[in-house]
Specification:
alpha/beta; Rossmann fold; globular; single chain; 7-stranded mixed beta sheet
Length: about 270
């Protein structure tokens, strides 16, 4: 995910990788399963590609939906968290450099993947081309409407508001340095429309942001994972980070969360 010295902290081999992947699944799976089940209607016999499989929870859900006649390819640069399953083929795969699995698919799903890639526009169009007639491409990424929305929804004192703003700005500074694009999700539809696709729908979801909920716990985890960067590249102190972590456990605290834009593209039959 990250190309600086902080990359290893977000690596699937990192000590906290299991915790981070679990929290991401808790934040996003309900919306993902709704999109795949109710809108796309993944069914028996489908051939699916789960790109950036993470902890394998989406691959497991897909394997249950496609039944004994279906198949799920779950790819990741480091796929060791994907569980063994008779209908899941877990592969080590770099979307930007390795040959893509064949034959083509009824569903391709990529969550929090393309926002990290430099050539995301071309890859999005190529993914749509890698579908069977009538197939569906589902791309989910985070969008931060930082300039349009308040960072914190609950009343806080001036000090708490300031350190949370510093934390937010620090995380986004690192994201910018490492190529993460928080605007991509708002452009995905236009990119695929320009590529000639017409059957496109976009879902907008925001996870709960109360203290102690998975989104707050993920922010708390990231405050530890990125501590050296935050202390060296922002005005935050070690004491500030302790306060941030304590606040993120408080159920009376609520922060704004990123929009989760899911773009669903159906190719013609």
């Amino acid at each position: 995910m990250y190309s600086t010295e902080h990359k290893q902290r977000f690596d699937n081999d990192a000590p906290v990788a299991t915790e981070q992947l679990t929290l991401l699944s808790e934040i996003l799976n309900r919306e993902t399963f709704s999109a795949l089940g109710e809108e796309v209607r993944v069914g028996h016999g489908w051939r699916c590609w789960e790109v950036g499989a993470g902890d394998g929870s989406v691959a497991r859900w897909l394997a249950a939906r496609v039944g004994t006649s279906g198949h799920v390819v779950a790819s990741d640069i480091k796929p060791q968290h994907v569980p063994n399953h008779p209908r899941i083929e877990a592969i080590r795969h770099d979307l930007t450099s390795d040959p893509w699995p064949e034959p083509k698919f009824d569903l391709i799903h990529a969550r929090l993947v393309l926002m990290h890639l430099a050539d995301k526009e071309a890859i999005a169009a190529r993914l749509a081309e890698h579908l069977r007639p009538g197939g569906a491409l589902v791309l989910t990424d985070w969008y931060c409407g930082c300039a349009d929305e308040s960072l914190i929804k609950s009343p806080v004192d001036e000090y708490t508001a300031r350190i949370f703003q510093d934390y937010h700005d620090g995380v986004h500074k690192l994201a910018g340095q490492t190529g993460m694009d928080f605007d991509w999700a708002s452009r995905t539809r236009d990119v695929l429309s320009a590529a000639g696709y017409r059957d496109i729908a976009v879902r907008d979801y925001q996870a709960p942001g109360e203290g102690g909920k998975p989104t707050a716990l993920l922010a708390r985890l990231h405050s530890s994972m990125l501590e050296s960067f935050l202390l060296s590249e922002t005005n935050l102190t070690a004491t500030d980070l302790v306060v941030i972590r304590e606040t993120l456990l408080n159920p009376e605290f609520e922060m704004a969360t990123n929009h989760t834009y899911t773009t669903v593209v159906r190719v013609p039959k």
